Amino acid sequence: LSFNYAMKSRTTLTLATIVLIMASLVHLFKILNNWELIIGSYTIPNWISIIGIVVPAILAFHLIKIRREL
Fold first, then answer.
1. Claim: this prediction has a pTM higher than 0.85
2. What is the helix (H) or strand (E) element at residue 39, kind and residue range?
3. What is the pLDDT of residue 60?
4. Is-contact 21 57, C-beta < 8 A?
5. 3 pLDDT above the threshold of 80
6. Are 25 and 31 a contacting pair, CB within 8 Å?
7. DSSP 45
8. pLDDT in tens, 22-60
9. Please, which residues have CB within 8 angstroms of residue 51's CB and are 6 or more apart in sequence?
10. Residue 22: half-sphere exposure toward Cβ, Cα within 13 Å
């Protein structure tokens, strides 16, 4: 890969990783602080936030591994 392409890829992977980690942290704080998420008249249960912690964290971990290989 060219140097310029690799630098753009690293920047993109870093930004995506940061966004995913932030999403995981927001869901973690939602559970720890017992915040309610209400959309319309429906209250989102906390078990959905557990998924919102695990899935983005796994994706962020894989993006970090990919970034190290570049």
1. no
2. strand 37-39
3. 97
4. yes
5. no
6. no
7. P
8. 999 999 999 999 999 899 999 988 899 999 999 999 999
9. none
10. 6
Distance between CA 54 and CA 69 in Å, rounded? 23
Q: For the chain, give the number of residues.
A: 70
Specify which residues 37 forms β-bridges with.
44
- Cα 66 from Cα 58, distance rounded (Å): 13
Q: Which residue has the higher pLDDT, 70 or 21?
A: 21
Per the CB < 8 A criterion, the answer to whether 59 and 2 are in contact is no
- Rounding to the nearest 10 degrees, give the CA dihedral for residues 53, 41, 39, 43: -10
Kindly give the interhelix angle for 46-69 and 3-32, rounded to the nearest 10 degrees. 160
Q: What tokens were used for 43?
A: 């209250």
